[in-house]
Here is the input.
Amino acid sequence: MHRRCLLLAPLALVPPTAAQAPLPVVASFSVLADMVREIGGTAITVAAIVPADRDAHGFQPRPSDLRTVQGAKVVVAHGLGFDPWMDRLVRSANFSGPYARAADGVQARSMDDSHAHDHGGGRAQRHTQGKRIVSDPHAWQDLGNAPIYARNIAAALKRALPAAEHAGIDRRAADFLRRAAETDAWVRAQFAPVPAERRKVITSHDAFGYFGAAYGVDFRSPQGVSTESEPSAAEVARLIRLIRESGIRAVFMENMSNPRLIEQVARDAGVRLGGTLYADALSAPGGPADTYLKMFRHNVPAMISAMAQ
Ligand code: ZN
Here is the structure.
């Protein structure tokens, strides 16, 4: 017994790579933080600036967020105009390590301004703070984009991790992408039996454009691609008329936005809310959508059961 301890003691003094302190990584919001966690594994710790159940649109960083970035070795933002405040935060923190935008390389979907409101000839233009919205940032809602996110995140982590950790990053990224592809196939299989005319969903804001394009679902919402925009009374009235005329039953609130507007839409249209969809933020740990892939496993059955009513 005593002898074994003597034999083991010198081994414990050799610092194996795994015993290195995990690399502190900051991600802008909870969905991205989960992808970073998947790919970084135990080699990293990750903090999300915008936590679960909170809205990243128009987020105002606090002094504590500045300190979080200052303590990080890698920072991962989303890009595509989703989290422009991250650029300012990284600059203010004088952060000089790897700074990646996880959605770099995504085929950005242009926002169809007439999406929620206009069908046919007339062009309805939506403005946010005087600017016309041109691109839709919610690209993670199409699982087909997962390889782009994974590649950008893995590259950023490798820039800050020792070479001995790189194989682990690649292995975990491959495993994550295998499960993302499985989830993608599962989503398609869930929607396959649903007739096209039933595949209509109303949500608080236009967060599901990529999802709709990938999986053949028509999403409408009173708000635009950012929760910062406020619809006019006429736009809300048009949406209510659309719900009544098309017999849409799937009306959902989102976990991170104020439910007041969508509750009013549902009430005025005479439909019951179908529950909560997770779009821009995960649920808190232990909740129904506390990982990126679980978000799909929650949202899709919720949509389908409301469509079937
Ligand atoms: Zn959004």
The first strand starts at residue 23 and ends at 29. The radius of gyration is 22 Å. DSSP finds ten helices and 13 strands in the chain.
